[in-house]
Amino acid sequence: MKLTLVKTLLNLLALNLVLAGLAEMQKKSHTEEFEGASALFRAMSSSPNEGYSYSWSVVSFPLDDSTSTDEPGSGLNCTVLYLDHCTSWNKCRQTCLKTGATSYRWFHDGCCECVGEHCINYGINESRCRLCPEPGLEDEEED
Fold it and tell me: What is the DSSP letter of 72?
């Protein structure tokens, strides 16, 4: 009984360490700016479900720029694309270049975020890829 309890506690400790490491990787990222192709990025992010099957999700939110002289509701949004699957740093960079993004953020957990023209600070500093890290990764590491 004691041996089973010790094994269970060690497994829980190992799981906590794995999850803590994963949470830390989700916070760290690499960023880079591109010249970008705004019209291409808008086209790629405007209607992703209309007859096309892209492997990303689109997140768009209004800019809250209190220093702007524009009237409220000027319509400027920050739009980012999150690739669904984990990818390498180079694949993230190349994919974002091809979408016309003006910058990208590659998270150390493999999540890739392509950032549109009106975003500041490289979009959203949060790993939100649907399938990255891959589901079940934590389960495999427990064995």
Answer: T
Q: Is 98 helix (H, G, I), strand (E, B) or coil?
A: helix
* Residues 72-121: tens digit of each pLDDT: 556 788 999 999 999 999 999 999 999 999 999 999 999 999 999 989 88
Ordered by start, the domain boundaries in the chain are 2-65+74-142
Residue 123 makes CB contacts below 8 A (sequence gap 6+) with 78, 80, 103, 105, 113, 115, 116
Which residues are CB-neighbours of 26 under 8 A, at least 6 positions away? Answer: 107, 108, 109, 111, 126, 127
> What CA–CA distance (Å, rounded) separates 112 from 30?
10
